[in-house]
Write a structure and sequence with these properties.
Length: about 525
């Protein structure tokens, strides 16, 4: 059944009612002649149907890739990973605690409403509302003192303290602006595309917004997102020419795609796999037991099994490679040491081991394979692991409710700065499936807050060294593996770019530049 102009909120509610049954339903097959002739529509194969498309929620990369076509914030990212103006034309610091943002002239939302300073202020007020479930709510409430609108094109953010990373919040795809006549439940944005048709669980069709501010964009008139939850089918569809672009290229397919003259890949390093824990109930409320797990994992086996060698072991906190904040002496703090792991089990009151459920998902091979290696790694120290492998939408829902003992997660920071660790470690923030449930260390939270408020580079480095030390002791996040991340596409596709480092998941921003060569 097809529903025309279905609001995003309706897609989310009905999709969730479907449960896992909708994730892998029939996929419309397009005949090769039709695809060969179509040059006004780009078809992008998603790895999952978005659990929700509410503007300020974090529900995974597939959802973010769709949302950034219809919703845009004040700033975003250029293909080289630098911050650029989006709905805002310029931004500048005016002293240590004030940022002045100039809006672009003539920007319209999809409903015809103008982008005004009042519309910007309203969007931020909705995100900061005490009932809001916005992913960035706590950070915005903690940081922003007031928002002023001195003239028709200017927004002035007055902060409660200096911030080295405020511009990254403005560039986050979790902070888009919505029309003053819309709401979080039924948002209307100002992105390059607007939704025209939805088939629940299967596809989302979009068409270029003729009022988009960036002249000559998007370069392709129509865009279709289609759900290929099975990674092998996703690759097969690309090879057959039924789709033009795919995300989450399975690592076992890298070599065959590289050898395929019809296809090409764009690969970056940056995302990573890690374990998180239920710190509120169950065995892993004890940090010693979390540390025992950290020292038992065979990380090289994860790299081989899940990523076919396209990655490297990660035995520390998520400081990206090449970062000036990364300390190589602690980058592999957790090495495989079964004797130490058993000692920590005894210190944690479980010398004979125990049983635990490990939440992951079978929808992504990398998650399932990582979980299986973790299960095998923990058996020698007496931890009997039962795998729980639902579809991705269920994995997100269960994770948000904290219904697990420990869990496999794959992610990347929101930006290439050590403050991106905040989203994984600060327990004072809105609960999320990407962070250990119930974990909250005020001392660590305070160090992370100091780091983002400090403008002096040397002092920031010292603060993050102290934060890293405490995070390693708590083991609320246990690094497993760095991984390569690839998008694959037809050779004739131009303009699409895999953004560097942690920003790889933001690569959907470049779909407005994508065209057929």
């Amino acid at each position: 059944m097809t529903e025309r102009n279905l609001p995003f909120a309706a897609v989310s509610r009905r999709r969730l009612l479907q449960g896992s049954a909708g994730a892998a339903l029939s996929i419309p097959l397009l005949t090769p002649p039709t695809r060969a002739q179509a040059r006004d529509r780009m078809i992008f194969a998603l790895s999952s149907y978005p659990p929700s498309l509410r503007p300020w929620a974090n529900t995974g990369t597939a959802a973010g890739t769709v949302k950034c076509q219809t919703l845009r914030g004040l700033l975003s990212y250029a293909p080289d990973g630098t911050v650029r103006g989006d709905l805002a034309e310029s931004w500048r610091a005016d002293g240590p605690t004030t940022w002045v943002v100039k809006l672009r002239s003539g920007v319209k939302f999809h409903d015809g409403e103008a982008l005004t300073p009042d519309a910007v202020r309203r969007s931020f007020e909705l995100m900061q509302d005490e009932k809001s479930t916005a992913f960035l709510r706590n950070q915005l409430v903690t940081l922003i003192d007031k928002i002023e609108t001195p003239d028709a094109q200017t927004v002035r953010f007055v902060l409660k303290q200096p911030s080295a990373t405020f511009v990254y919040l403005l560039a986050s795809w979790h902070a888009p602006m919505i029309s003053p006549k819309s709401s979080d439940a039924n948002p209307v944005g100002a992105g390059p595309y607007r939704v025209t048709d939805v088939e629940r669980g299967t596809r989302i069709d979009l068409e270029a917004f003729d009022g988009y501010w960036r002249a000559g964009h998007p370069k392709t008139k129509k865009l279709r997102f289609i759900n290929y939850a099975d990674e092998n089918l996703r690759v097969a569809a690309l090879d057959a020419g039924d789709v033009d672009l795919i995300e989450y290229v399975p690592w076992q397919s890298y070599e065959s795609i590289e050898k395929n003259a019809k296809l090409k890949m764009d690969i970056v390093d940056g995302p990573f796999m890690y374990l998180l824990f239920n710190a509120q109930q169950g065995p892993f409320t004890n940090a010693k037991l979390r540390q025992a797990v950290a020292y038992a994992i065979r990380r090289d086996d994860v790299v081989k099994a899940a990523f076919f060698g396209r990655g490297s072991a990660m035995g520390g906190m998520p400081f990206p490679k090449g970062s000036e904040f990364r300390d190589e002496t602690t980058a592999n703090h957790w090495r495989t040491d079964l004797d130490l792991a058993k000692k920590l089990l005894a210190e944690g009151g479980q010398p004979g081991g125990f049983s635990a459920k490990l939440l992951s998902t079978a929808q992504y091979g990398m998650h399932k394979d990582t979980a299986e290696v973790v299960q095998q790694s923990l058996a020698p120290i007496g931890i009997k692991v039962e795998l729980v492998l639902p579809d991705w939408a269920t994995r997100v829902a269960v994770g948000n409710r904290g219904q697990y003992d420990f869990a496999v997660m794959g992610s990347a920071g929101d930006f290439n700065d050590p403050d991106s660790m905040t989203q994984f470690l600060d327990g004072s923030l809105t609960p999320t499936y990407t962070r250990s449930h119930g974990y909250n260390n005020p001392a660590l939270n305070d160090l992370l807050a100091q780091g983002r408020a400090e403008l002096d580079l040397a002092k920031r480095k010292a603060i993050y060294r102290a934060a890293e030390k405490l995070a390693l002791e708590d083991a609320a996040l246990v690094g497993v593996a760095w991984r390569q991340q690839a998008y694959a596409m037809q050779k004739r596709v131009t303009g699409f770019k895999n953004l560097p480092g942690f920003l790889s998941f933001y690569s959907g921003l470049t779909l407005e530049d994508a065209a057929f060569g």
